Amino acid sequence: MYDFAYHKPSSVADAVKLLSADPEARPISGGQSLLPALKHRLNRPSSLVDLSGISELKGIKREGDTIRIGALTKHFEVQHNPEIKSAIPALAFMASVVGDIQVRNRGTMGGSVSNNDPAADYPAAVLGLGATVVTDKRRVAADDFFQGMFTTALEPGELLVAIEFPVPEKAGYAKMRNPASRYVMAGVFVAKTKNGVRVVVNGAGPGVFRQAEMEQALSANWSPDAVANVKQPSEGLNSDIHGSAEYRAHLVTVMAKRAVAEAG
């Protein structure tokens, strides 16, 4: 691990000031993605800006038909929060199957979404529910936020503050995990919202993406059978020693059926 400076601001304004002043500085919350990267020398920040002491980045609150979740909210808190379990049980379930119990007690939603790992769970829910990402500067629609592998719309020095999830009529999530690493090989989040049906795939490709054909099928008939014969093209999907692109394409259909069944 390389040498670096360490800062622990007490406000969003102070954190943004530190990050804006040094393009090589990196924010850290739970550290479940950044710390392994530092240990493997895949990242070399000049300084770490520890966000853990910023109270305004924490908390879960329902505002009408929206659940607002602070960026520093841990997976464990999402899993067990009564408001989320009541309004968006699929999101609480998703949190319960993130990593292992150590990761769930340290990792944060904001860190996961900002990192945008192809195998991360939360980006599928953010995009699947048509959520809004709130930063210190602006509000970004989910459809505009995720821009490819480990890439988002966040600008240098910009900090994710919270995510606002519209409460859906129905939602479900299912994923196939690699039995060794537990990372997602293919996952599908489905949601029936007031603005229509959304189906989002994670893990199978270089980033989350919507499955338009499944969305059309479920709009006409909300049932597992509606997506049973919808084939996900394998072009552009991940292919490695753990599974070919064709295998992951097959998993997308299987997971979509399970997600719809979970949604009810």
Q: In words, what does this structure look like?
A:
- The strands form three sheets. The chain has a five-stranded antiparallel β-sheet. It has a four-stranded antiparallel β-sheet with strand order 9-10-11-12, sandwiched between helices.
- The protein is of the alpha+beta class and 264 residues long.
- It is globular.
- Among the domains are: 1-50, Uridine Diphospho-n-acetylenolpyruvylglucosamine Reductase, domain 2; 170-263, CO dehydrogenase flavoprotein, C-terminal domain (Enolase-like, domain 1, 2-Layer Sandwich), CATH 3.30.390.
- A hairpin with a 3-residue loop joins β6 (132-135) and β7.
- 35% of the residues lie in helices and 23% in strands.
- The mean pLDDT is 95.
Number of strands: 12
Helix/strand class: alpha+beta
Shape type? globular
What's the CATH C level of the domain at 170-263? Alpha Beta
Q: What is the H-and-E element order? A: EHEHEEEHHHHHHEEHEEEEEHHH
Number of helices: 12
Low-confidence spans: pLDDT under 50, at least 5 residues?
none
| Cα distance spanning the termini | 48 Å
Q: Taking strands numbered 1, 2, ... along the chain, how are they ordered across the largest sheet?
A: 4-5-8-6-7
CATH architecture of the domain at 170-263: 2-Layer Sandwich
What characterizes the major β-sheet?
A: 5 strands, antiparallel
Kindly state the percentage of residues in helix. Answer: 25-40%
Overall pLDDT metric: 95
Strand content: 15-25%
| CATH-derived topology of the domain at 170-263 | Enolase-like, domain 1
Q: What is the assigned CATH homologous superfamily of the domain at 170-263?
A: CO dehydrogenase flavoprotein, C-terminal domain
Rg: 18 Å
